[in-house]
Design a protein that fits this description.
It is a single chain. With 300 residues, the protein is mostly helical. The chain has a two-stranded antiparallel ribbon. Helix 11 packs parallel to helix 15. The longest helix has 28 residues. The radius of gyration is 18 Å and the shape is globular. The two termini are 26 Å apart.
Amino acid sequence: MNPEMTLTDFMQSCQARAESALDARLPLATKLPERLHQAMRYSTLGGGKRLRPLLTYATGHALGVAPEVLDGPACAMEFIHVYSLIHDDLPAMDDDDLRRGKPTCHKAYDEATAILAGDGLQTLAFQVLATDPTISVPAASRLAMIETLALASGSCGMVGGQAIDLESVGRELDLPGLEAMHIRKTGALIRASVRLAALASPDLPTETAEKLDHYAKCIGLAFQIQDDILDEESDTQTLGKTQGKDRDNNKPTYPALLGLAGAKQKAEELHEDALASLAGFDERADYLRQLSAFIVQRRS
């Protein structure tokens, strides 16, 4: 990718690349069972910021890893993310009607199909990591990628964070409790997005990998804080999902705990911490630096 590209150009290039890679790895809409595969494609293609693939590609750029080696990991991350959104929107969870500016999967199809579409995307993510021929890394690195995504997705990661979130409705959490929830629910997949790219560089020094992981931990929390802020300040059309849902459901959020000004300050502090963790990296890490700023400045 051209190092002279602006962040906007880089993001658009990565988003287009991810869209093409996702399309190529999803089952065709005409393949049996057609309705299930149509629902998987409906929820995955044609929308979203593609933040997790963006972070995978940007980390690869910082480390000199070719983007074609990262297409598989980037798709695996997005498949897991989309599966989590489909299930998060279900009546038994957040019961949302809108996602990425269009009807949620269970509204466009039906609840059973949505559950199965999420299940299909989850398993497809691991199939891609296990078998995709474009992931030209040693077997040990491929296995570490599978383990990384499994840990980030499971009961000690994203699924566990969602469980804590559901248990926390109507309860007050202190700041450590809120952070512990979001390190799992939102942060785990963001950290995995960066780690998968690091694992595509098998000779990467441990210290460098740890700095990248700290960067990812910071921006993962900052992303959630900004999400909570936007839930208060933005509108449904801009967000592409129902505005004010967390407040209406009496969920613990950063603005509820810290106030809007305090939440914004916390997000900025995490952004500065993320930048500090990249202090030893050269200009190839500038897209990572700019993505951190984008996360705390975004309006949707």
